[in-house]
Amino acid sequence: MKITFFGHASLGIELSGKSILIDPFISGNPKSSHIDLSELKPDYILLTHAHQDHTLDVELIVTNNPETIIVSNAEIATYYLAKGFKAHMMNHGGSWKFDFGTVKYVSAIHSSSFADGTYGGNPGGFVIEGEHKNIYIAGDTALTMDMKLIPLRTKLDVAILPIGNNFTMDVEDAILASDFVECDKILGCHYDTFGFIEINHQEAIQKFFNKGKDLMLLEIGESIEL
């Protein structure tokens, strides 16, 4: 399993020969200007919620790759089905076995609407199990006790958590979240894109280290292998 950071909350995952894209907000992020959207050819796009900083590039990417399947909650999936795109709808607590592994849609505390005002349903996160590796993508969320349910079913290898504060958890809450999901290897996201969510990298890494945890803050375009 290979995970690539495309900036903000956008991630690419290569798993079992399939390419998965999470929350594509790339063209609108000046920090990601070196990422060529035309080179992204995902088999699936997983969307945690409808906000523009998570869905901006969906339509361009699926127009260029018409076999791409969008995976999200019922409201978001229906929104894209109505536009003629392929989609698989899920809802909280449900899971589905795809050709790359199993995906479970889990709770998040946030808001969710499209840029045109269309209701985007309840936000969520994803637990992905595949290639004997398990990852949790929290999406935009506050710290929530529901996170404690995840390790009751799944032993995680890495948790991808927002750490930028203001709109989501801050670093301290993300440390608590890592306790809740019982995972000490954390990939940070949703930070530095704009002024409200800028963080001190070294301070954040040190705070996780002081708790015996590893916080990874990747450069945009950088990858890790699990």
What this model shows, in words?
- The protein is built from 6 helices and 14 strands.
- The protein is of the alpha/beta class.
- The protein has a 7-stranded mixed sheet with strand order 6-5-4-3-2-1-14, covered by helices on one side. The protein has a 7-stranded mixed sheet with strand order 7-8-9-10-11-12-13.
- The radius of gyration is 16 Å and the shape is globular.
- The relative contact order is 0.15.
- The model has no long low-confidence stretch (mean pLDDT 98).
Structural class: alpha/beta
Give the biggest beta sheet.
7 strands, mixed
Please mark out the parts with pLDDT under 50 across 5 or more consecutive residues, or reply none. none
The run of helices and strands is: EEEEHHEHEEEEEHEHEHEE
